Amino acid sequence: MFATYLIGLREGLEATLVVSILVAFLVKSQRRDRLPQVWAGVGLAVVLSVVFGWLIEYTSTSLLARSEDRELFEAVTSVAAVVFVTWMIFWMRTAARTIAGELRGKLTEALAVGSLAVAGMAFLAVIREGLETALIFYSAAQSAAGGTGAGALLSLAGGVATAVVIGFLLYRSALKINLSKFFTWTGALLILVAAGILKYGVHDFQEAGVLPGLNNQAFDISSTLDPNAWYGALLAGMFNITAAPTVLETIAWVAYAVPVLVLFLRKPAAPARPAAPAAPPAPATEAASTPAGPAATEASTDTAPQRA
Questions:
Q1: 80: alpha, beta or left, given left = phi > 0 and alpha = psi -120 to 50?
Q2: For the whole model, what pTM was predicted?
Q3: Which residues contact 183 (CB under 8 A, 6 or more apart)?
Q4: How far apart (Å, rounded) are the C-alpha atoms in residues 228 and 8?
Q5: Which of 4, 14, 66, 242 would you label with 89, given CA atoms 20 to 30 Å apart?
Q6: How far does CA 303 lie from the centroid of its chain?
Q7: Which of 163, 146, 140 is nearest to 14 (CA)?
């Protein structure tokens, strides 16, 4: 159940960092009176995320009587979870440098409006992480052998608890970690987890009769990859790597994992620096310099770098 622990750790740390930014801004701004509204918004987001996760599980186990409908529902949620995972890891890589400033700006606007705006801003900042966690957890747990049982829930809770402790220590300056490397490594692992979820979704589509090839195996390495051994259970539970996958499952796993990993691990290009404005040519005569003066001034104004 390391996959569900990783999901709880990654998503929990993102949410914890968001909350710590909001709390630190209020404390430094001498607005501790607004902290209860922030915690109220965070608490409501957590409750709704738990309800959303329970609703997904209840729909799968109680509302869908036919096995084909249940397989189709799990397939759709698996694809949705892969989309959310992919969007989340790439968004976090691009927005990590500006998220603190954006949150402070939004919180400043909310403080000017009132208490409900502060609570709503904190709620919206956390609810996205909560809904993503619920959906990804359900899909990852379903793709593993144990399903959404007590073990998966404990692993998720352990990951979230670890994230809260790390976030608190970072807030208190008692711990220093390279968050860039942390999110890079966990993002790469989550891509492999998402590849396993997509493979599981393809298998569910095949069992529901939407996709063909349920009995067309790509290979069978059961003699080498023992599913009962610890390494077989780890690969199956973490990345849904099985000994006898179908052809479509294998294609889906490779077609997602390889290009997404390459794009994610590729170092982003450094932003281009603005070119220095060219110096205006020296005027040959006084008559020639007269019309060139305003134009040169305007050009230098337009090309000068803006100061924050």
A1: alpha
A2: 0.74
A3: 10, 89, 92, 93, 96
A4: 26
A5: 242
A6: 37
A7: 163
